[in-house]
């Protein structure tokens, strides 16, 4: 997994792109915890989000979970193919399974996110 990735405590991952946008998805831990995904609601391109705000949802056979924006900004792209091919999240959560791209309003917000080792520690502390 790429060292440049950051993670939110709500299990979203963030990767800064050379274009200045950040790509957002959910971690493999979150995908495994949800199991049997059946539905995903994506936000509209152009929507403004605040860090910590729900921008969509993902549903499994056992629960509905919100997807949270790890940074504030404008959604500039969504992975429109993902809702009809949810198995991509399980196969490639950090690549083809990306969910949205956000143009951050305040790139400093990225410093508040967890690095890989801090996120791994968080996951290990979660009840199974």
Structure overview:
With 128 residues, this protein is α+β, with helices and mostly antiparallel strands. It has helices spanning 28-34, 87-91, 116-125; strands spanning 6-7, 12-16, 22-26, 37-41, 48-49, 54-60, 64-68, 73-78, 100-104. It has a 6-stranded antiparallel beta sheet. Strands 4-6-7 form a 3-stranded antiparallel beta sheet, with no helix packed on it. The longest helix has 10 residues, at 116-125. The chain starts with 5 loop residues before the first strand and ends with a helix.
Helix content: 10-25%
Shape field: globular
Instruction: Profile the largest sheet.
Output: 6 strands, antiparallel
Mean pLDDT, all residues: 94
Write the layout of secondary structure elements.
Blueprint: E1 6-7, E2 12-16, E3 22-26, H1 28-34, E4 37-41, E5 48-49, E6 54-60, E7 64-68, E8 73-78, H2 87-91, E9 100-104, H3 116-125
Antiparallel strand pairs: 1-2, 2-3, 3-9, 4-6, 5-8, 6-7, 8-9
Brief description of this entry?
The protein is of the alpha+beta class and 128 residues long. 17% of the residues lie in helices and 33% in strands.
Features:
33% strand, alpha+beta, 3 helices, 128 residues, three-stranded antiparallel β-sheet, six-stranded antiparallel β-sheet
